[in-house]
Amino acid sequence: MHTRRYNAPMRTLFLTAAQRERLELLFADFRSLPRGLHAIEKQIEAIGEQAKTAEEGRKCKRETPPRLHAELQLPETVQDYYRTTQHAEPGKRRREWAALGISALTLVAVIGYAIITYRQWHTMDATFREVKKQTDSAQAQVITMQKQLVASERPWISARIFLTQPLIFTGKGIATIGVGAIMKNVGHSPAINVRFDSKVIMVLGAEDLHKRQVDYGKIWERRSATGGLPGNTIFPGDEHPDHGITDMSADEIKAGLAKSPIPGKVTPMLIVCIDYMFYSGPEHHQTWYAYPLGRPDPKHPGMWMGFFVPSGTPEGVVLIGSMMGEWAN
Description:
Layout: H1 8-12, H2 17-62, H3 76-153, E1 157-169, E2 175-185, E3 191-202, H4 206-221, E4 232-234, E5 239-248, H5 250-259, E6 268-277, E7 284-296, E8 304-305, E9 318-319, E10 327-328
């Protein structure tokens, strides 16, 4: 058996040109491989150095800055004042507590005094109210007794009223009439400053009549005992006559015509006031009378005609007796 033996140089001789070129390039790559590996190692070392430098920079940034410690040293005078205050503080607190205790005791004493004073005042007020109530009651009793005494001992004047002249409507728009009175003191004391007066008015009802009497009586109440002509004195049981001429003003006649239920006619009324006083005080007492003026109705006996045409002298005019308007105080 024959064995073939090939030598490398001999093998090379049988390669083509392209194969030889490729083989040479491969050998060239193998020869440059150590230099490439060395370059790679240098790059790895450079990268490691950069990483180490970056890590050290980060560590420097993360490190906490050192803390500062400062000590404040107060002046010696302040320290002495503080030590003195600390030593004096217990005594001061004791004094404050003592003052507070004294204030509290004083407040309790004031409250107690106020309570006692209020109770005393309440008792005194109740006593005063009771005394005042008794005093008022006593005064009321005295006033009542005085009124009873005055009512039983004072003078009372009554009168008989009559006409002395007929009713005349003058051409001047007014009317006149003569009135007389016989006054008698039916009381138990003299009546002083007695004055008699009368007036003819137009009225439509009892309320209007009473108001006119009161208003007219106030004129006499305002007159003094000696103002103008002094009045008369009538002793108990005595009589005193008096008379006068009274009139009815033009305004009164116009008002009567305006208010009359019968057109063109008026219904006159005579009011009489007797004003007098009592020696025990300045009060005025008055007796009032009121009489409608009319004439008998010839067609109806017992009836009266009280409306007149305000002209001339109506015939047969008399005083019509009536309880209306008679009162005394």
